[in-house]
Design goal:
By secondary structure, this protein is α/β, with parallel strands linked by helices. The chain contains 20 helices and ten strands. A six-stranded mixed sheet has the order 6-7-8-3-9-10, with helices on both faces. The structure holds adenosine-5'-triphosphate. The site of adenosine-5'-triphosphate has 11 residues, from helix 11. GO terms for molecular function: ABC-type oligopeptide transporter activity; ATP binding; ATP hydrolysis activity.
């Protein structure tokens, strides 16, 4: 799988050269029109005063005004199109990249912060086009034309003015550095508040049930205040550009008046040229300000782009097999053809923690039949499943799936060989049909979907949904917790993978559905390896093989009845579960 290409602003902006050229030309045309209309009006007034006919001049003025407005509209539309295309491309690339990042990285960054990348960050990048690109060419042209006229009138006064503006430019260049740093800080703070808010929304029922709205609001308002304070610094920096520029203009004016007066007293400068020069100098402020604002936006765009590129440079999950991974040459010789999963002295410590979640753990899961993984809370059961799916890789030791090291498997093939039902991420916010066939490359026949739904007792519930199989669940319409889990089980039934991995799937099932679940598991385990993190006695009892963990290590493994007799911790766990 290839890494996402870094964003380059120039390439993004010039990706549609024809539209860009036309939009810039029409922008210039509109500016020229705006400049011509006052001149034509001036001529109309002069001709009327002299008693000459002005019919054609009036028609001309209307045509120029209309053409100028149309050119302005056209230019704005084309730039907006370029901006929308850019935002679209970046959004798609960033979303695709995020989906392919390692699970641990996504969890560390947080859903809210990552979401803000495709909302506020992309919009900020768009301002490069909306503000920077729309204003800068016209302003640059106006500045260049004015400076040329000023130099033509008097080069010494132009040099004096240029010297003052150069000093202003250096001051503003420093401010741009702070503006850029502030823009990064603002985006990070916005990502932070988005992350916090979205995690609070995930816990909304707990917040409401505990009456914690006020506490959470206070917490969020502190975050919002931090964003406000950082934003305020940015506003001060932006606002400070105006007085710096206005001050520069005043200094330039005083210097020009001083030097101009000396020149006039020596007779080397006429009053008319001096007045024209001063008028140009006064007119220069607006386009120069627009130019600086445009540069400011470009710097901010640059900062946002760098943030995107840091994210895009984060390595995706490696699809291919990794060097050094163990792929048994003769699985039969190693006895691996009869194993579904093997853990061989596996150790794993979560980043940022000191205590290993698993240490030197070894066990094996047969190729066929039901194996359950049990152990007290925090024993390492979910970590085992993460390693089987290669959501993360062991620090030491080897995890073998169907005879090959998980690191040697191409990732898509590994995950294509496993059906994974996880308690917290059971379903997608998508239609029932999509949820059932998410692992299939081709459409699953409708009959097969209904058959699977019948096996988990969901026929009536799905038929009752507003659009049946095509109802999108997870938003306006939803199923109960237990129904969602059964739908996930139906997905497992529809799969033809050699391995089925289930994480505590019975926690929300009632008695009848638990029986149904057992039947499904038995059916599945006749032909494949079913590996279940089990909390229910019923699941454990029907398992051919039980693996017990504690503190990240193996306590014992064997048939349920044998463990009950020989393994004291297992007996204790069993008794505790029976009581609960
Ligand atoms: N993302 C994580 N970051 C840091 N430590 C973690 C993370 N996930 C789990 N742990 C730690 O690793 C150990 C094993 O956790 P794991 O979730 O695998 O246990 P478990 O047996 O599935 O527990 P439970 O039955 O309560 O779900 C625990 O000590 C836990 O605190």
């Amino acid at each position: 799988m290839t890494q996402t290409t870094a964003i380059r602003l120039r390439r993004e902006i010039t990706r549609h050269p024809a539209a860009l050229t036309v939009s810039l030309l029409t922008g210039l045309l509109s500016t020229a029109g705006s400049l011509a209309v006052p001149l034509i009006t001036r001529q109309v007034i002069a001709d009327v005063s002299a008693g000459r006919s002005v019919n054609w001049l009036i028609v001309g003025a209307f045509v120029v005004a209309l053409a100028s407005s149309a050119a302005q509209g056209g230019s704005a539309y084309l730039l907006a199109r370029i901006g929308s295309h850019m935002v679209y491309r970046i959004r798609v690339a960033v979303m695709g990249h995020i989906l392919r990042l390692p699970v641990q990285h996504i969890r560390t960054e947080g859903a809210g912060a990552l979401t803000s990348r495709i909302t506020s960050d992309t919009l900020m990048l768009r301002q490069v086009i909306d503000v920077g690109l729309a204003q800068m060419p016209v302003s640059a042209l106006l500045v260049a034309a004015s400076v040329a006229a000023m130099a033509w009138l008097n080069w010494l006064l132009t040099l004096v003015s240029a010297g003052v503006f150069a000093a202003v430019g250096i001051a503003i260049a420093f401010m741009f550095k702070w503006i850029k740093a502030n823009a990064i800080e603002q985006q990070q703070a916005l990502g932070g508040i988005a992350g916090r808010f979205s995690s609070h929304l995930d816990a909304i029922t707990t917040i409401k049930a505990s009456g914690a709205e006020d506490t959470v609001e206070q917490d969020l308002s502190q975050e919002a205040d931090r964003v406000r304070r950082i934003g305020l610094t940015g506003d001060v920096l932006q606002a400070a550009m105006l007085p710096v520029l206005a001050g520069g203009q005043q200094v330039a004016l005083v210097a020009v008046i001083l030097v101009g007066s000396v020149q006039m007293s020596h007779g080397t400068l006429s009053v008319a040229s001096f007045s024209a020069f001063v008028l140009y100098l006064l007119q220069l402020a607006a386009p120069v300000m627009l130019l600086f604002t445009g540069f400011g936006r470009l710097r901010i765009g640059q900062a946002v782009k760098e943030r995107f590129n840091t994210l895009l440079a984060t390595p995706r999950e490696q699809d291919g097999g990794q060097p050094g991974a163990r792929r048994p040459e003769t699985p039969e010789a190693a006895g691996l053809d009869t194993t579904g999963i093997v853990f061989d002295k596996v150790s794993y410590t979560y980043p940022g923690t000191a205590q290993p979640a698993l240490s030197e753990l070894s066990f094996s899961v047969p190729r066929h039949g039901l194996t359950t993984l049990v152990g007290p809370s925090g024993a390492g059961k979910s970590t085992v499943l993460s390693l089987v799916e290669r959501f993360t890789s062991p620090d030491e030791g080897h995890v073998l799936v169907l005879g090959s090291d998980v690191d040697a498997w191409p990732l898509s093939e590994l995950r294509g060989s496993i059906t994974y039902v996880d308690q917290s991420f059971t379903l997608l916010q998508a239609s029932v049909r999509q949820n059932l066939s998410v692992q299939h490359k081709q459409a699953v026949p409708e009959g097969a979907l209904w058959e699977a739904l019948a096996s988990v007792g969901l026929t009536a519930a799905v038929k009752a949904l507003p659009d049946g199989l095509d109802t999108v669940i997870g938003a306006e319409t939803d199923l109960s917790g237990g129904q969602r889990q059964r739908l996930a089980l139906a997905r497992a039934l529809l799969s033809d993978t050699e391995l089925v991995v289930l994480d505590e799937p019975t926690s929300q099932l009632d008695g009848i559905n638990e029986d149904r679940f057992r039947t499904i598991i038995e059916e599945l385990s006749r032909t494949r390896a079913v590996f279940v993190v089990a909390h229910r006695l019923s699941t454990v009892r029907s398992a051919q093989h039980v693996i017990m963990l504690d503190g990240g290590g193996l306590v014992d493994e064997g048939p349920h009845d044998v463990l009950l007799k020989t393994c004291e911790p297992y007996r204790e766990l069993h008794t505790a579960q029976a009581l609960s």
